[in-house]
């Protein structure tokens, strides 16, 4: 029980450190050639425990190496208290910043009996879900009224990020089968969905269980209405974003992980310093690292050293 308590206590403190030291979206959007920061070809997968905000290890990465990838994805792998998570509910995807920035957030949920994918299938599946989300997002913006867009943009400015959408594997006419808009933190539950015929059908359901949230399910189905100039421009931007994603995948993927060292802050009690500086760090050194658990090939791995003072 002492080992379990030390591990749990230090893990919670690490998460709180990440939560209080994350950087703002404005900082990310300000990075550019004017600051000597370049965008390089490829996909950069930044693994983090945060479900919102920009992690501190990414800011450390950009500070030491003033460049990051053309497609940037903040990936959070979560284990949820259900045995299995259906593939259609595994990926929650959203944008980080405007579409032109090509930055996304993806929360991948696994049940405690799910078998994690190897890195090749994971990368392929992640890119496929990103492509589905891009189609869904453009399709949603096409069917959103200007007033709703203004309201959504104002909401996005206040929350700094757009809502996450669950992207499934079922598709209709090239668009994702459905998207679930999350108004709060993602729930650790598994829910089945029924099929509807009309895009106007919106199902409100309340998930039962701890951490359940109200979910609005919108089924996206293409229509054959005549395209206006605005729609034509939108389709061109959609194709351009999908082309950038495919080009980045061909250029290669880099996995950016944090290599952490935890220290007790000055003034801590002797018991806390023993537990953190010796107990937790000893356990961490003798446990599998994230790169081993995720089966990341060494040639694609970038580790960012971080010192956590808790």
Automatic annotation (TrEMBL):
Gene Ontology CC: one annotated term: plasma membrane
InterPro entries in UniProt: K+_transporter, K_trans_C
Coiled-coil blocks: none
K+ potassium transporter C-terminal domain location: 41-308
Pfam families named in the record: K_trans_C
Any one GO MF annotation of this record: potassium ion transmembrane transporter activity
Name recorded for this polypeptide: K+ potassium transporter C-terminal domain-containing protein
